[in-house]
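=== RUN LOG ===
request id: a7f3
mode: sequence -> structure
chains: 1
length: 267
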Amino acid sequence: MASSSPPWRPDVEALRREILATSHAVAARGWVANHDGNLSARLDPPGDDGGLRVLCTPTAMHKGDVRAEHLIVADGERRVLEGSRHAFSELALHVAAYRARPDIGVVLHAHPPHATAFAVAGQPVPHPFTAEAVVSLGPDLPTVPFHLPGDPALDADLAAALQRADVVVLARHGLLSVGGSFEQALLRMELVEHLARTALAAGPLGGPQLLSADQIATLSAKGRPASDPARAAAPAEPAAETTSAPSPRAASQDVRSVVEEALARFR
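=== RESULT ===
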């Protein structure tokens, strides 16, 4: 008799720790104000759209104030299944992301000020002008056109953008980052904000010079996977809480080695 694979069960307690740590991190970095921003994590098997459930932050709370008792579990229709608070209105964005790509484990939405400056000015964040950004983010950093809340066209535009990248700019709005863990989504958003800040600083000097098509192609071949495969088995813990997950510093060292190898071809 063939053995069946064990059922997919997320470590909900680990996800609760991750979502709280990340919520507090985006607040501490000044990426949200008032009740801005929202975070969610898929609780269903990847690819299961029939009963989508997410663990998420509630509406009407500053992200620095969110505690474990405030978290809720909601379905794809914003119905609260667990918890005493209400679901945020932008949950539709998260649901669209999960349904567009079954490999996505978490969604992070915030308004980092430098990247959001490009979003509200109707300008794309310049990319790629650094090798590390191609390796970590891929060659594209798409902008999703502005839509009023509830416009069904937003789902299609977001889904198309997420086929090209793991971080997207929401026009006149902010950033949306996805990944296999909150650490991964946070690091990706951090990098885009750093690129935006660097691009603005380079403006008076003539602006950043983009990499050539050949350089982008070579670096893209060395790039990151679209998601974190480990998320399908169990959610990753924040680096500070586990000895098995790579630290951001270790990850940056890996990126540097890949970049140096790729750029060596052009010397």
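=== NOTES ===
Strands lie at 38-42, 53-56, 72-75, 80-82, 106-110, 143-144, 167-170, 174-179.
The first strand starts at residue 38 and ends at 42.
=== END ===
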